[in-house]
Every structure is written in C-alpha cells, then in structure tokens.
Amino acid sequence: MSQTIGHTDATENDAARVRDSKYVWHPWSRNEVERDRLMIVRGEGSRVWDAAGREYIDASSLNSTVGYGNEDVIAAATEQLRTLHGVDMSATNHPVAGRLAEVLAGYLPESLSRTLLLNSGSEGIEAALMIASCYRRITGDPRNRVITFAQGYHGSTVLTRTLSGLVPTGHPFQQPIEVTRVTLPLPAAELRTPEAAKVLAAAFAEALADGDAPLAVVVEPFLNVGGGIVLPPGFLTELRALCDDAGALLIFDEIFTGYGRTGKMFAFQHEGAAPDILVSSKGLGGGYAPISAVTARQDIYAAFADDEIIGGLRYGHTTAGHATACAVAIATLGVMERERLVENAEERGRELLKLIEPLRTLPGVVDTRGLGLVGVVETADMATAAALVVSCQEHGLMVRQQAASVLVCPPLTLTSAEVEEIAERITTATRALASEQSTEQSI
Ligand SMILES: Cc1ncc(COP(=O)(O)O)c(C=O)c1O
C-alpha cells in the first residue's frame, strides 16, 4: 500500500528512484554514489522540498536569481508558449530576441551592443572563441593562442574544456587551439590585496609574451569551479591594458557572475574594465529556461560582413534565441529591476560574509570569503568540502562543492532573516563535521 510522505506518494517516490537508477545518466556525476542524492519535488522562494517532505534552503543553484515559483516569470513563459513558443532564428525571426538584446545593451558600455543568443554557457564560450578567431582571420591577423587561468572552467564542449587546467575537465582529443594557462601565483586566501593584483597581472604579462601572438584572454572575474576564488581589485583593469598592448581580445566569462550575483549587474562593473566579448548565462534564465548571451563589440560584428563564405557568422543552434527563453529572461530582468535584486545581492552578501567569517576558527576551515551573494568556505581539502556539503544537507541547507571550497549561492531574493538562517545552518553543519572528525581521529 502506498503512503503519502511530504508532498509525494511513497510508492511514486520509490518508483522515481528506480527509474533514475535504471535509465538516467547524470552529468558530472559518479555512477555509484549519486543514487541517494536528494530527489527534489517542489520549490518556493529560496526553499525546496524533497520527496520525504523535508525542507532545505537552496544555496546551491548557480542559476537562481529570482528564486523558485516566481509568478511573473511563470506568467511570461506561459504567455509566450501560447503565443509563439519559438522559431529557428537562422531561418526566420521573432520579436522577443530583439527586445532582450536591447535590454542587455542597456546594461553595458555603448560599444558592447551586439548579442548572439544561445542555450548554454559552454555554447557561449565556444561561440566567443569562434568569433574571436574568425574576426582575426577576416581582418588579416590570424592567431590561435588563448591565455586562461589554469583553475578556470569555461564549459564542457571540447573547445571550452581545452581551456581549463582542471583535471576532470580534460579530454582525449587533439588540442584544437594553443592554450597558455596561468596558475594562481598565490593561495586564494592571499589574493585579495592590490599587491596581489600586480603579481597576478605580471603572470598574465609573461603568458601573453611567452609564445605566438595571442588571440584572446579568457577569464572569469571570479573563479567558480576552480574553488570560489575572489580576484584582487585592480586586476581586471591591468588585464585590459595588457590585452590592448598585446592586441589580444579580452573575453569575460560571466556565465556564473553575470546578472547580479556579485552585487553588480556584471562582475566586471566593479572596476569598469570592459571586455571585447562578454559571455553570460545562468542568472539570465534564472534556472527557468536555458539561455546564454554572447555580447560583442559592434565593430567585431561588422567585420563579419567580409566573411568569404556567407558574409556573416557561421555558428548557431536550432533552438538558439528561443522565444520562450527570451521571454523568461526579460521577465527575470524585470523582477530584478523592480525588486532591486542587484542591490539586495550586495547588501545580503555583506551580511552573509560577516556571519560566516567566524567559521575560519573551526578545524578544517582554511578561509572564508565572498563577492556579492556568493559566500565561500574554503576547507582543508576536497574530501572535507564534500563532507561539509553532506553535513549542510543534513542541517537543511543545500550548498555546492567547488574544488576544496563550499559555495553558498542562494537566490538574489534572499532576505536578511534567511541570511541568518543560512549562517546558522552552515555553522552548525561545520561544527558537527569538526566534532565528527575529531571523534573519528580519537578512535
Ligand atoms: C564560469 C563558467 N563558465 C562556463 C560554464 C559552463 O556553462 P554551462 O554548464 O551552461 O554549459 C559554467 C558552468 O558552471 C561556469 O560556471
């Protein structure tokens, strides 16, 4: 006989688990240990509920801008699905893409006003590299070397994972482009000073000079998958100047940091050092629809008129610029503006950072840091970070492991009371883990 637990029928829940273990291949997951992962069945605001009815604050979603169940976004998506769900933009047109691209241009410097809409972050970086390479070829200065952070992550396609030096993102194919990777010259905890900006800029200057003429520099303004690394103030400005000197295009990967996450609409706006190509994604669709945006300098776009085969961009996906995803994005940005969510991210982020700082004194914690509404607890090693994620889950908080760090990234709609709840839950979880580990050591 079936029994109702929380919001789901127990039999149905068991059936869902069986189906999952039999038929589903999870991305970026180990085969054998992931089957008891949370089965989330409902979300509202900053909270989700699992199949057993347990409630969690979700501070693990890299996409979440407006939280779960936002009625404005749901209404916009529903209306768009009824009117015109989508058409292939390589063959025809619809009005929603233009409206979104215009809104995006309004947030950016005047020169950055031409947007290619795609589905995922990886596609966005892939397209940005194609655009950079074709632009150089079309303008008579072909180049093939890209400079990145060794600890950077830019996606899971072959070209984008070629950039990363992180071990799990390697690939078995030949290198399609030459990549020079810059290893962080200092530990993350020592990277937040103006002096560190000089050291880091010097490392990039060396990489730019060391080899063939550079095509582009691709960096995240905050390293997400590499371990939640806050870069030193002034670094992006120095990097902009270095790229200008070397004739390299500067591409910012704001797939995670864009749309308010760091307390500015885009993270590069903390300094005002604008890129030549900006790639954004996650927060734009708020998790409600897959969408990414590659926004380039208008003159880069104009150069493609001289492409020898089609006189334009030879890149696209059938669902790129999907009308429903565009409608979701416009609605998401509307909510963000009306509810001042960028400012809220900055204010709540400051509160969170202050409240997690005392965790530094606990065993196993190496550093706490943050930028806007992303809090980082760096632990001693990856195993400790993984154990902390589990401990947080046991205390009603979903967080995300990135390398040896745990990232706290709640929706930007978070309230001060919820900041306190998160701090309380992660503190209890860290203490519980520390005492569990000290008991294990004394046995
Ligand atoms: C900085 C950064 N770049 C690129 C990506 C890849 O985006 P997607 O998973 O949408 O392909 C991610 C995803 O986590 C990311 O954080």
Automatic annotation (TrEMBL):
The keyword Transferase applies. Keywords: Aminotransferase, Pyridoxal phosphate, Transferase. Pfam families: Aminotran_3. Gene3D superfamilies: Aspartate Aminotransferase, domain 1, Type I PLP-dependent aspartate aminotransferase-like (Major domain). GO terms for molecular function: transaminase activity. Belongs to the class-III pyridoxal-phosphate-dependent aminotransferase family. This is Aminotransferase class III-fold pyridoxal phosphate-dependent enzyme. It comes from Streptomyces antimicrobicus. The lineage of its organism: Bacteria, Bacillati, Actinomycetota, Actinomycetes, Kitasatosporales.
